[in-house]
From TrEMBL:
Domain called EAL: residue spans: 1-253
GO biological processes: cellular response to nitric oxide; phosphorelay signal transduction system
Keyword Nucleus included in the entry's annotation: no
Top-level taxon: Bacteria
GO molecular function: cyclic-guanylate-specific phosphodiesterase activity; kinase activity
Positions spanned in the full protein: 655 to 907 of 915
Species for this entry: Thauera aromatica K172
Key words of the record: Coiled coil, Kinase, Phosphoprotein, Transferase
The name this protein goes by in its record: Diguanylate cyclase
């Protein structure tokens, strides 16, 4: 079956799934949030990772409905967790196409209202290229999102072509340090310097930092000592279904 048809069918049939990966404080390890990561069940029951379908969904525009589904589903789930006593901020990825949508803030507002999730418990992950595409428009969109009370994180920071000027112009809360740097901090001094540099830059601009792809205890120690605020990666947990996450949280209480 053609991928696009398969995606449309998955949406209609409920074969889209969100997995959630914990985000923990670098010092102390407390779980403060999760990142919602989209998967699509194919006909054989296999879960397709987003790399296999997001690019096409972006091209065809299908990302608009997939993204809307992910946003609402993540908000509802985080609201249920809050009611169950787990206060977790949920991070949802936005594609460039979604970020370009003039109705984005209104859609986000509706997802918050429809789910009952407090805006402070939602974080939107955007890419540098989304912000760089049209700075005027990005400034407007970010201001509208901030007015709602949601947090904004720049994903894969340091990997794109971008100007650092946007960091002072735009109301951003966090930088997510790309996995490609994190995975080298204990073996490559240059990567270690880049990561320290990002953390110091972020803090001097009053931004928090999240390191992604933390896999080893050594990386975690490096990040903690460098002052990184939050960590995410296989060292703590892989992305997992909501129920598995609940069991995982219960074992940590
Ligand atoms: O595990 P991982 O393979 O989940 O994710 C791969 C990439 O897919 C990541 O860069 C992530 O940002 C992107 N991604 C995951 N879920 C979503 C989503 O709901 N929307 C968008 N636009 N991208 C997503
Ligand atoms: O949004 P983004 O590109 O940053 O999505 C995070 C991606 O990183 C997802 O594909 C997720 O499954 C993956 N990921 C999360 N933690 C780790 C990790 O510790 N190691 C590796 N290799 N990948 C990870
Ligand atoms: Mn992300
Ligand atoms: Na990322």
């Amino acid at each position: 079956l053609e991928l696009e048809a398969q995606l449309r069918r998955a949406l209609a049939r409920g074969d889209l799934v969100l997995h959630y990966q914990p985000i923990c404080e670098a010092a102390g390890g407390r779980v403060v949030g999760v990142e919602a990561l989209l998967r699509c069940r194919d006909d054989g029951g296999r879960l397709m990772p987003p790399g296999e379908f997001i690019p096409l969904a972006e091209e065809t525009g299908l990302i608009m409905v997939l993204g809307e589904w992910a946003l609402l589903t993540a908000c509802r789930q985080a609201c249920r967790w809050q009611q169950a006593g787990w206060t977790l901020r949920v991070a949802v990825n936005l594609s460039t196409r979604q970020f370009r949508d003039a109705q984005l803030a209104e859609r986000v507002r509706q997802c918050l209202a429809g789910s009952g999730l407090p805006a402070a418990l939602l974080k939107l992950e955007i890419t540098e290229s989304s912000v760089m595409e049209d700075a005027e428009r990005a400034a407007q969109t970010l201001a509208e999102l901030k007015a709602l009370g949601v947090a904004i994180s720049v994903d894969d920071f340091g990997t794109g072509y971008s100007s650092l000027a946007y960091l002072r112009r735009f109301p951003i809360d966090q930088l997510k340090i790309d996995r490609s740097f994190v995975s080298e901090v204990t073996h490559h001094p240059d990567s270690a310097s880049i990561v320290r540099g990002i953390i110091d830059l972020a803090h001097s601009l009053r931004l928090k930092t999240v390191a992604e792809g933390v896999e080893t205890e050594e990386e975690q120690i490096f990040l903690r000592e460098a002052g990184c605020d939050l960590v995410q990666g296989y060292l703590h947990a892989r992305p997992m279904e909501a129920e598995a996450l609940e069991r995982w949280l219960a074992t940590r209480e």
